[in-house]
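quick one before i forget lol
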Amino acid sequence: MSPVQRTTTLMKGNEALAEAALRSDMDAYFGYPITPQSEILEYLIIHGPKRGSVVLQAESEVAAINMVYGAAGAGARVMISSSSPGISLMQEGLSYIASAQIPCLVVNVQRGGPGLGTIQPAQGDYFQATKGGGHGDYRLIVLAPSSVQEMADFVPEGFRLAEKYRNPVMILSDGALGQMMESVQLPEQGSLPKSIPAWATRGKPENRERNIITSLFIDPERMEQVNIELQKKYAAVQSEARAELDRTKDAEIVLVAFGLAARICQKVVDIARERGKSVGLFRPITLYPFPTDILSRTADHAEHFLVVEMNAGQMVEDVRLAVNGRRSVDFTGRMGGIIPTPEEILQKIESLTVSTTDQALQGMP
């Protein structure tokens, strides 16, 4: 994308995301209130209609995701947002949308669970977001912001990826990122090109065949062919894998974290370096596609990986697959809406260091 003029302001993460959607020429937004993402709906209700966007509070999350299906199927640029329990209610609709190959942007501002849970920030929806969530062999493209700036930046990027691959894209945020305020640079209006796609169901002109959008394929051979097409697309999506590496080249221990947990780990790396420990940070930006190859190359020189998550250990499985047994992979995390502290992570690093020293001594003659 070519550089565009940007304006700087102080905003909440949720509001920055909503403003970025309007500046990305979003045609329609459908949603339902749920803490901690309600500011997205509130901001868009106030500002969207006077700037040309349809903004509708549906009667439920189930209704909202099916409104997305209809509007996006007609070629509109559409966004929906919710928080963890609400996203769970949308899974059937997301499976339909993925099967029909309809682009849209989904925002999950996560909170603690399972169940109705708490309104505090968490990362317990990693499996749901990256492994499909609903029924069938489908995937969402998943972006994981770790700042208010990325909450804004990932909106036009999410729309771009959705339209490029005709696939739903999810921004997987959390309640802390949604509620915190930071300085953010916003692009000028209209920085993301937009056109009506040829496949859109907008009436049948005389010069083409009828466009049909469906996820129903009764013939099993046709259903298998649809799945084959989807898998080819997901293979192509692997080229979009992204990660941010901080001081990993000389690191003996590499922390792996996304979103809010990565912000905490950034501070941990600073403190550990001050204490003379060679620690680095690997932050996946795309959770699907997971940056497997980039992480695998990091394993060429790192001795240990410590995965830090705000859940019981979900991304750690993808890390272990990427490392493929070549290095040890440990996990530390908090659940239920509790945020791990830098000191807790540093204590885990210390235990890994002691364990490594003991193993080295045991190997001495």
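fyi The first strand starts at residue 6 and ends at 12.
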